[in-house]
Amino acid sequence: MVSYANARTAEEVGMARQGDWVLTRDAIAVEEFLAPKPRRQKLQEWAVPENKVIVGMVACFKAQKSPEDFIEVAARVLKETDGAHFVMAGDGELRASIEERIRRHGIHDHVTLLGWQSEAAMPELYRNLDIVVLTSLWEGLPCVFSEAMACELPIVATNVDGAREAIVDSENGFLHETHDVDGMARSVIRLLRDAELRRKMGQLGRSRVMEFDIGKSVDTVESTYRKYLERH
Questions:
Q1: What is the pLDDT of residues 52-86, one digit of tens each?
Q2: If we measure between CA atoms, which residue out of 99, 125, 133 comes closest to residue 33?
C-alpha cells in the first residue's frame, strides 16, 4: 500500500486483513530533485512572466484530478491580485473543458498549459514553480507531493486519502476539502503574498521528504519478497 489511508480502506471493505499488507510509498528519486541547480530557467521558454509568483499543477487532465477546479482557483486568485501566473503540466480528456473555463473567466493571459512532460523533465519543471496545487478528488499518495517537497515548494491540496501523510496542514502546506475552490484560493493568495511563509513551508517539506525516496521503497519491496520466499 502507498498510504495508511488506502490500507485502512482495504481492510474496511475486506480486500486485505490487518498485517497482510506492507507500506511502500509511491516514491521518487529524491536526489534528482534535491540537486542544487538554478531556479526559474524555463519561464522565458514557456512565455511566462518572470516577475510573477508561479503556481503550478502537475496532473493528467482526468476526472480524478478535477483539473477544472484548478482553473476556478486561478480565477478567484486573479480577481484579488495580478501577482500570480498559473501553469498546468499534463494533458488528457478534459483539456477542452479546461480551455473553455479559461475563456469563460477571461484569464487566458494568466494561465499556461504546458502539455505532457517527460519524467526526466520533472525536476527542472518544479524548479520553475513557487507554489504547487493539486485538486484531486481521490488519491493513493501522489508523487507530486514528494516532488514538490524535495524542491522546497509549499503545497495547497485536497485532504483526500494519503494527502495528510505527506502534508501537515499549516506546516508544509494547506489542506482543503474537495471542490473547496474558495478555500484553496485563499491559501494560494496567502502564500503568494508571503515569500517567507513559502520559504518556511518549503523547508519543512524538504526536511521529511526522504520517507518517499525510491531507495527506501525498493528496499521494502525486496525485503518483503525475501521474507515470504524464505518461508516457502
A1: 999 999 999 999 999 999 999 999 999 999 999 99
A2: 125
User: Angle CA(73)–CA(75)–CA(79) in degrees, nearest 5?
Assistant: 115
CA-CA distance, 23 to 211, in Å (whole number)?
A: 11
Q: Which residues contact 183 (CB under 8 A, 6 or more apart)?
A: 176, 177
Average pLDDT, the chain: 96
Q: Which set of grid coordinates corresponds to residue 108?
A: 487566458
Model-level pTM? Answer: 0.95
Phi/psi-derived region of residue 47, left when phi > 0, alpha when psi is between -120 and 50, beta in every other case: left
90 by Cβ neighbours in 10 Å (0-12 / 13-18 / 19+) ranks as: buried
CB 201 within 8 A of CB 169: no
What are the residues facing 111 on neighbouring strands?
86
Domain 29-213: which CATH number of 3.40.640.10, 3.40.190.80, 3.40.50.2000, 1.20.1640.10: 3.40.50.2000
Strand partners of residue 112: 87
Q: With contact defined as beta carbons under 8 Å apart, do 199 and 53 qualify?
A: no
Q: Domain spans of the chain? A: 29-213
Question: Rg (Cα) of the chain, in Å, rounded?
Answer: 18
Pairing between strand 53-58 and 84-89?
Answer: parallel
111 within 8 A of 123, measured Cβ to Cβ? no
Q: Is the dihedral of CA 22, 23, 26, 30 positive or negative?
A: negative
